[in-house]
Specification:
InterPro entries: 2-oxogl_dehyd_N, 2oxoglutarate_DH_E1, DH_E1, KGD_C_sf, ODO-1/KGD_C, THDP-binding, Transketolase-like_Pyr-bd. By secondary structure, the chain is of the alpha/beta class. The protein is built from 35 helices and 28 strands. Helices cover 39% and strands 13% of the residues. The strands form seven sheets. The protein has an eight-stranded mixed beta sheet with strand order 3-10-11-9-8-4-7-6, sandwiched between helices. A seven-stranded mixed beta sheet has the order 17-14-18-19-21-20-26, with helices on both faces. Strands 23-25-24-27-28 form a five-stranded mixed beta sheet, sandwiched between helices. It starts with 15 loop residues before the first helix and ends in a 10-residue tail after the last helix.
């Protein structure tokens, strides 16, 4: 816990108690212990418990002694010589040790004992001291970062819970060493690289080198990593003497980048002093940091970098990393500029960008995209990962060598937002890994007005990354060279291990949260210190001038040069009269739209497919297309059932989905279905992945065995995170319009843990950022008497966010339906037939533009005997039915119909059963609205016109304040010009979506059906 903001950072030796407090235990080993039977092979194999002193590390020491003795017995102490000689001669346990011969000529008996004890103590001390040195080295590796000078302000807000400080020259006593040992030479263990070419150093030098490696401006946190090789790799990168060196050229480039970063903010401040821009002042090193990562990654073959970042320093990153034209950035500050694009647009520090350019260091092309993002901190993280995965997937980059992601974070957000953790947990899952993300935290030690001690319970903001064994490099951001070094190590780490890594740029925020905020209200002392803080550019320039890397004149000229670039761009920006949000697109789809960015047509072809295709895909769905595969008996029955359906030319829900996916795959469209337990299907209806019952992990995905030139099908059970996985799939769908990307919620109500992705990206993304997205959400929905959870996918919420006007009756034109789809923000459907589900999925791809599709999917209908569709409804010429009119006796004599019940989804089946039971087939027409939004005004009007004498009812199984009623009612009224009342048949308003009592559920159902068929209208409610 953080008790106080402290400047004391502490260490505690891991093995001190054993070494210093229990010498008796250490003494056991030489005279009578197991070492008496020392034999290299045997002791290496012996369990540690059988060797009181020989643990994994001390055995190294004895082994080293033994090897040295083998080479030359005179190189080891006489006592070791005697010991090894006796042990090798086969001395029995405990008898190998003998004291060295007496050096003086005194009385044999007594001196023999004294010598024996003296020599024993010598060896004991030698081993003990070496173990102590080893413990000390290890402590530096584990906790050296506690002592590193990370905070440029020197106020240190990392609290390690009052653990006593131990390392350092003054603390060797804690390890059982004395000041007099500082000049003794110790052999170095194999677990350190501080020796360079030397294998032994004085204790003083050992401590000095460890301090250099671990306690200066870089703090390395890595010893929690399970992989020994990875730990070793990091030790080598930071311990090797003199490893942090830069060429003159590198230093000059670093200075030039610091100049750009610093002067950009100063320029904005001069020109627009009263505008919010969330400047980077206090963390100017971020720009060279990112550029170093990109340079190094490009050198190792990366061609595409996808970045996500919050507000802080975003304009600077756009200008100096992505290299967006400065005039395009500056014109965003002109509030009078007119927007050329439809939609709301967004503030300048949320917009995205895409740019391809030559990297000067690697001399290779790199495409960089910065994803547009909402204000919601960290929400973009999974989206970036999804897009990166998609780029890797489409370019066959199975190891992440060509495309990579960089995520930037604020310290408060990184620690506080759960999506960070959820995204980390995608990092090593086969269908979600992007093979290593480089995370950069702008750790300005504050979140808006909140101190870290109030904002997190972990010492560092980066502790969340430890769950995936990501190394964490803390670095003082006022030292640009140290920053550059950790960034190049991080890039190398990713390129070597393809795993996540975190760079924690410990810095400060020179201004308030934004440039208008007064930080002294809440952090007076911190800001007094900040005001005293020298500007990092000046300090760094002075250092390079002193080193002779540049002259004062060089430096000043470089500053003038960049200021001139800014001034010229500023002048050009004045010529901009129109703001094109399209220029800020982060994911262009070349060739999909016209050059003007419009859809290439405004019609949608038939979504049906040929009988042959239906049979072929159906047969694949009914088979196990690999040899010697033992499928489960239940699966065999399901496959047989599918074969029967194919022979009868009908589809149930699962088979129609198969038909949609299979046909798109055969047309070369990638299909990716992701979500919890989607491979089998929560309701055990899908079974897209078959498991061999006899061979562990042997699976078969029949959908991938359809034809040699088909697109690949990805179906993947996801981690249990809706927010992370939905964001990821949204990002995946962003990369290409030529893919059907679907996310299925386990039950529809679970989508609300991903509400941020729905609100900030899916429903409003196009309006804000002019980019389209065709993601499909499958949300199981329906009142089945299963209680308040698992029943409702909350249709009311999706419908409430639709942008079509309830009060305006549209003018119909040719292709009205497609135009309507084009203008909407998302499509909401509830299909009542498998064929319609098939069509709506295929329509997603055959439309000439992309819109998110929300599908309320059924549960009981999956196995409902009547919820089947004939192949006839899926053949060429057929298409998705936005509305399914009555086709029974009532439709024959519409003038005799007393009541028209409009409904959607599975209640249709309850209604027609009830109608039949009541003998009302002629009197009541039931009309299904399959596409709720955009509302099919044209088709609804045709129905209301047909049944002119009928009362109109909206029937739903959901409660009145939920479901579709509030959305449908005004639109129905607008359709009929308010000439007839719209009656309501459904459940009463309620707080919970459904009752937990089965009996009540059935009573409610019966009551709503009674209301629906109250033909005289008396029981219908307005
Ligand atoms: C999910 C969410 N909650 C709250 C906010 C409001 N907010 C904007 S910036 C900010 C502070 C962020 O602090 P930090 O992550 O340290 O970034 P910094 O501004 O210090 O760079 C807050 C709370 C937000 N944007 N998103
Ligand atoms: Mg912060």
């Amino acid at each position: 816990m953080h008790r106080l903001r402290t400047t004391f950072i502490r260490l505690w030796p891991l093995t001190t108690p054993q070494i210093a407090q229990n010498p008796a235990q250490n003494r056991l080993w030489v005279p009578g212990g197991h070492l008496g039977t020392f034999h290299v092979v045997r002791h290496l194999n012996a369990p540690v418990a059988a060797e009181p002193f020989l643990n994994g590390t001390s055995s190294n020491y004895v082994e080293e002694m033994y090897q040295t003795w083998l080479e030359n017995p005179s190189k080891v102490h006489k006592s070791w010589d005697t010991f090894f000689r006796n042990a090798n001669a086969g001395a029995p346990p405990g008898a190998a040790y003998q004291s060295p011969p007496p050096l003086n000529g005194v009385s044999e008996g007594l001196t023999g004992v004294q010598d024996l004890l003296g020599a024993q103590l010598d060896v004991e001390k030698l081993v003990k001291d070496h173990l102590a040195v080893q413990a000390l080295i290890r402590d530096y590796q584990v906790r050296g970062h506690h002592l590193a000078k990370l905070d440029p302000l020197g106020i240190g807000c990392v609290d390690f819970d009052d653990t006593p400080c131990s390392v350092g020259f003054q603390n060797v006593g804690l390890y059982g060493l004395a000041d007099s040992d500082l000049d003794r030479v110790f052999r170095l263990p194999t677990t350190t690289f501080i020796g360079g070419n030397e294998s032994a150093l004085t204790l003083r030098e050992i401590i000095h080198r460890l301090e250099t490696a671990y306690c200066q401006h870089i703090g390395v946190e890595f010893m929690f990593i399970n992989d020994v090789e990875q730990c070793k790799w990091i030790r080598q990168k930071f311990e090797t003497p003199g490893i942090m060196q830069f060429s003159l050229e590198e230093k000059k480039t670093l200075l030039a980048r610091m100049i750009r970063s610093t002067r950009f903010e100063e320029f904005l401040q001069r020109k627009w002093s009263s505008e919010k821009r969330f400047g980077l002042e206090g963390c100017e090193a971020l720009i060279p940091a990112l550029k170093t990562i990109i340079d190094k990654s490009s050198q190792s073959g990366v061609e595409s970098v996808i970045m996500g970042m919050p507000h802080r320093g975003r304009l600077n990153v756009l200008a100096n990393v992505i290299r967006k034209d400065l005039d395009q950035i500056f014109c965003q500050f002109d509030s009078k500029l007119e927007a050329a694009d439809e939609g709301s647009g967004d503030v300048k520090y949320h917009l995205g960008m895409y740019h391809r350019r030559i990297n000067r260091v690697s001399d290779r092309y790199v495409t960089m995209s910065l994803m547009a993002n909402p204000s919601h901190l960290e929400a973009v993280d999974p989206v970036v990962q999804g897009k990166t995965k998609a780029e890797q997937f489409y370019s066959g980059d199975t190891e992440g060598k060509k495309a990579m992601s960089i995520l930037l974070h604020g310290d408060a957000a990184f620690a506080g937002q759960g999506i960070v953790y959820e995204t980390f947990h995608l990092s090593d899952l086969p269908s979600y890994t992007t093979h290593g993300t480089i995370h950069v935290v702008v750790n300005n030690q504050i979140g808006f007005t909140t101190d870290p001690r109030m904002a997190r319970s972990s010492p560092y903001p980066t502790d969340v990354a430890r769950v995936v064994n990501a190394p964490i490099f803390h670095v003082n951001a006022d030292d640009p060279e140290a920053v550059m070094y950790v960034c190049s190590v991080a890039a190398e780490w990713r390129n070597t291990f393809h795993k996540d890594v975190v760079i924690d740029l410990v810095c400060y925020r020179r201004n308030g949260h934004n440039e208008m905020d007064e930080p002294m209200f809440t952090q007076p002392l911190m800001y007094k210190q900040i005001k005293k803080q020298n500007k990092v550019l000046q300090t760094f320039a002075d250092k390079l001038i002193a080193e002779g890397v540049v002259t004062t004149q060089d430096y000043e000229e470089e500053v003038v040069r960049y200021d001139k670039i800014c001034e010229e761009a500023y002048v050009r920006s004045k010529d901009e009269k129109i703001l094109h949000i399209k220029h800020w697109l982060d994911s262009p789809w070349p060739g999909f739209f016209t050059l003007e960015g419009q859809p290439k047509s405004m019609s949608c072809p038939s979504t049906g497919i040929s009988e042959d295709e239906l049979s072929h895909i159906g047969n694949i769905a009914a088979s196990v297309p690999v040899q010697d595969f033992s499928a489960h008996g239940g699966i065999s029955r399901i496959l047989k059932g599918r074969a029967n359906m194919v022979s009868q030319r009908v589809c149930d829900w699962a088979l129609s989905e198969y038909m949609a996916f299979g046909s798109l795959l055969k047309e070369g469209v990638h299909v990716r279905l992701s979500g919890q337990d989607v491979e089998r299907g929560t309701f055990s209806h899908r079974h897209h992945v078959l498991h061999d019952q006899n061979v562990d992990k042997r699976t078969c995905i029949p959908m991938n065995h359809m034809s040699p030139d088909q697109a690949p099908y990805t179906v993947c059970n996801s981690s249990l995170s809706e927010y992370g996985v939905l964001g990821f799939e949204l990002g995946f769908a962003m990369a290409s319009p030529n893919a059907l990307v679907l996310w299925e919620a386990q039950f529809g109500d679970f989508h609300n843990t991903a509400q941020c992705i729905l609100d900030q990206f899916i429903s409003s993304g196009q309006a804000k950022w002019v980019r389209q997205n065709g993601i499909v959400l499958l949300l199981p929905h329906g009142m089945e008497g299963m209680g308040p959870e698992h029943s409702s996918a909350r249709p009311e919420r999706f419908l409430q966010m639709c942008n079509d006007d309830p009060d305006v009756f549209p003018t119909f034109s040719e292709d009205f339906a497609t135009h309507q789809l084009h203008d909407c923000n998302w499509i909401v459907v509830n299909c009542s037939t498998p064929a319609n589900y098939f069509h709506v999925l295929r329509r997603q791809i055959l439309l000439p533009f992309r819109k998110p599709l929300i599908v309320f999917t059924p549960k009981s209908l999956l196995r409902h005997p009547e919820a089947k569709s004939s192949f006839d409804d899926m053949l060429p010429g057929t298409h998705f039915l936005r509305l399914i009119p009555e086709d029974g006796p009532a439709a024959v004599s519409p003038e005799e119909v007393k009541r028209v019940i409009f409904c959607t989804g599975k209640i249709y089946y309850e209604l027609i059963r009830e109608r039949k039971n009541r003998g009302l087939d002629k009197a009541v027409a039931v009309v299904r609205v399959e596409q709720l939004s955009p509302f099919p005004f044209d088709l609804v009007k045709a129905e209301t016109d047909r049944y002119l004498n009928a009362e109109l009812v909206w029937c739903q199984e959901e409660h009145k304040n939920q479901g579709y009623y509030d959305y449908v009612k005004p639109r129905l009224r607008t359709t009929i010009g308010r000439t007839r009342p719209i009656r309501y048949a459904g459940r009463e308003p309620a707080a919970a979506p459904a009752t937990g009592n089965k009996h009540t559920h059935l009573m409610e159902l019966q009551r709503l059906l009674d209301t629906a068929f109250g033909v005289d209208g008396s029981s219908g409610k307005l």
